[in-house]
Amino acid sequence: MAVSGRFVLLVLLGIVPVLLLPGWGTFFAVAAALAALAGVDAALAGSPRSLRIIRSGAASVTLNARADAGLAIHNDGRRRVRGSFRDGWQPSAGAVNPVQQIDVPAGEGRRATVVLRPVRRGDLKSPHITVRSYGPLLLAARQQTIAAAGSLRVLPPFTSRRHLPSKLQKLRELDGKAAVQIRGAGTEFDSLRDYVRGDDVRSIDWRATARRSAVVVRTWRPERDRRVVMVLDTSRTSAARIDDETRLDTGLEAALLLGVLAERGGDRVDFLAFDRRMRARAGSAGKGNLLGRLVQAMAPLEPELIEMDWAAVPAQVRAATAHRSLVVLLTSLDGGAPEEGLIPAAAQLAAQHTVVVAAVRDPQLGTMLDEREDAAGVFRAAAAERALLQRTAVSAELRRFGVEVVDAEPHQLPPRLADMYIRLKAAGRL
Amino acid sequence: MTGIAEITGPADQAGTAEEAGTAREGAPGGKAGRLRSRMRRHRGRAALAAVVAVALGLVVWGQLAPKGDNVPLSVSNAGPGGARAVAQILGRHGVEVHDARTHGEAMDALTAGEAPTLLLYDRNGILDADRIKSLTAASTRTVVVSPRFDTLRALDSGVRQAGVVPDGSPALEPGCALPDAQAAGQVNGGSGFVYDGGTTCYRPPGSPAGLLSVSADGRLVVLGSTAVLDNGHLDSMGHAALALRLLGSSADLVWYLPSLGEVAVDGTPRTLGELTPDWARFVGPWLVIVALAAMAWRGRRQGPLVFEPLPVVVQAVETAEGRARLYHDARADEQARDNLRAGTLSRLAASLRLGPGATAEQVTAAAARSLGRPAAEVRELFGEHPRNEARLVAWARELQTLEKEVKSR
Questions:
Q1: Which of A105, A340, A377, B266 is the most exposed place for a label (fewest CB within 10 A)?
Q2: What is the pLDDT of residues B330-341, one digit of tens each?
Q3: Could you tell me if the ipTM is greater than 0.85?
Q4: pTM for the predicted model, two decimal places
Q5: Of A132, A169, A164, A127, which is closest to residue A148 (Cα–Cα)?
Q6: Domain A48-155 adopts which CATH fold?
Q7: One Pfam family for this entry, by name (chain A) (predicted)?
């Protein structure tokens, strides 16, 4: 039961008979008449229970984009349902028009569209729709909440996409197509072609030259069909917010850029999100395009308030690939006790694979370092210094085991990780 | 993460948040168990509320409890300004004290009494001339305490107001042949009034008017001070004797203090209810009904609350800031110095390309070479242990300057 503004106006007008015929009798008679009017109007309203609601519309959308959630409302009752409904999207779904007017005659159906502008990644839900059906006089309404679960998967925005063209260009330059020659243990023979001025004389293939009258050089191309395994740490340290986004979000961006780049580079990509158990997994092995599968897998990830189980990581990597691969650990360098968790696991992986640890550095530590105006500032600088020294020590320890470390600020991490991949690929270390 | 499942069911519209709140506590065992657990959880708060309620009740009761009146010179006022003492003493000596609150009561007591004495203390000048005249006519003897100008004029006995007792002479001698005054001796005339006409006693030096004035026929006594009668001063000087002699001369004493309720008015005033028209009584209640309807209109929420599972967010720099506060609170100058020194050395080693294995000695030497400064000076800077915080701040800035100089080279 609900009343309308029209009913309030009518009650206000009810003061006229009360004033014309003053007395408690009139007073209560008018009040009772108004209540009865509202009751009858509500009783004559079409029943919201007889509505059937079918949801439609986009199942997923990227963050900060617009999504239209469709609703088909069928009236199976005998009376017309006139009034409004409210779609119960959670606030972060950013519903622009959750409350709308409806007018569905008996036995017919109507469509409505709720415009959503989600502000948070993940699976956003609308558990129910509340319908308010007014009577013929539009004085009072029956209100009913109808369970109609709707869900929208909001995908990570992949803002690091803007780095993709330049990194792909770099990757292409590694190929024999361009005039750049690379020699290394890991590059494989591609083709023979005529010598042009500027080519490295060491790359001249003398046998082929002997067979022909012109000088012939060998070209190489980077090896292909290597494997890249990205392990994203979703444990408690990933909840830390640096520069307006969590470590987890930065890790997702870096993983997306690296994943797309490696796929274009002809490598096979596997993505694991892990803390104490597998949170998400995607890879080149499935069908459809890799980017789509990656973002679908990443969308519902949230930081979990538990400690990372580093001891289980090598086994997870082994389960993902049996071959020598590039293993990228997207984690943090300063959480808990790295010498007990991250370092042994990375060292163990480094024995078989090429390992890269990618971690976000907090730019605020750099600003804290320069605050030396007073005693409090100096102590802050000392604390920041200590945090940075710890990171440096952990990085040094990792490098001692042959692990590459990418330690960059949030916006720099995805391109720096991509650069590291290109460098390793050029050096033939994949 | 949180209980989405709880809101998918058709929840009751009103009090959804409440329901969901209790459901999330996850207390099994139905409503009774939930209630019990809630009571247990709020036991401390309930006890506190009970204590506050009892204290509040006591305060209110103390405020509302009847207290003796605080009207000056009232026979039931036991305070310093009251006259309960003198009334009780008179009562013990066989004088019946009639406490009259209204003019009618006073008249009744006077007519019923036998040669009654009237005490009249009209400090606000409430009584009009007719009533004063009727009172004096009915009484055998009238004692008027500190009468105002209007009262004196109504009495029409030749006694006139003649100012106040000068500040310099609080103790007044009788100075007259009146036996009552002679017997009583000195009285305190402080802040009293003096009157002229008739037989005057207790005259301030150099003044013909006195604190006590008796009319020629002896039926009217004007006393210029309440101090003679009140509880606070009754036991000083000759106050008690004078009071008892003035008031105790007859068997009946009517003690009349006119109150504000007796102000003469022209006709009965009309109440607000009588002034407003008949219909106006219903406007207020009807507007309450309109307000209720408006509340129902605006206050009804369309659908239950929806849950937003909020993620955990921690500022990464919090740990470093917490450590900084710890250093500061513990005055860990030495620790801060070590951190800053080690950090600066490691960055200098990197910018001077000395490699990770360089010792502090090598780094300082290289830095001194790069800056063209004596090695001993730089070594001294890095070897210093600041004695206090002020020196630590200065030292930290020197390190920063040095590092900037090396890097800018």
A1: B266
A2: 988 999 999 999
A3: no
A4: 0.64
A5: A127
A6: Immunoglobulin-like (2.60.40)
A7: DUF58
